[in-house]
Amino acid sequence: MEKSDSELIAEVLEGNTPSFEFLVIRYQPRLFATARRYARRESEVEDIVQEIFSKAFLKLSSFRGEAPFEHWLMRMAVRVCYDFLRTHQRSKETTVTDFHEEPDWLERHAGTETLDPSQADGARELVQQIMSQLAPAHQLIINLLEIEEKSVKEIAQLTGWSIPLVKVRAFRARAEMKKILSRMDHDKYL
Amino acid sequence: MKAQDHLNQLVRLARKIPVDSRVPYAFEKRIMARLPKVQLPDLWTLWGRMLWRSAVPCLGVMILATAWSGWLDNPSDLSDIDLEAAIQAPIQNLVEASW
Hints:
The structure holds 2 protein chains of 2 kinds.
Chain A: H1 5-13, H2 20-35, H3 42-58, H4 69-87, H5 105-110, H6 117-131, H7 136-147, H8 152-159, H9 163-186
Chain B: H1 2-16, H2 27-33, H3 43-72, H4 80-98
């Protein structure tokens, strides 16, 4: 029978470090999925996931068990991803040009029901290209609020920001995103 | 208005992208191998760390105390005779006691 999170955590805290591996196996797919929303290169994704697990291991004693371990881990994941975005801000000038040859990509594929694997890769690349032009906080909030469809309260818990701050940043993020899309439209990239 | 349409299209498109939760082979082994070593600090390490940390404040206190005592007792008042008398005081006491 599989051990619960709290049993595994208790074992790790008692000094049985190998028990942490079961937690890694259990949560790594979720963390990889999250990290891939923020980083494009696979090596960066792996670095992010590793950083999350290292932090989780070091701070495991501060986990009080009031909320599920997964929530605690996801809060850590969001903060590591945000730190990653802040330290890897890309140049705003070196984007969108790759999509010059496919100006109506967004319009064509936004309406389709499902994406085949090659379309999904293209869509992921396009979304990340556009998102990377946003400020890190705006990128994070668009991901959480619009794409992952989390509530303002959930985002406040995940990021540690206050609810009014989340709302303000969401408003500014949408405005910045519209500005970028208008510019692209103006440049005939869309 | 067109920007809002594009934003909606982008969000719709992003939501349709399948979640990619693939994990590289034996990634958990890599994590376990690179876990930071958590060592419980022993008492001697803590004591040594405390000593090193207190070294600078102690040095500061020592310098201040030296400066203060130097300022209180003007060194020019201390003549060679006074120094001699101070050093010989215990001997003098012994001599007087023997009489």
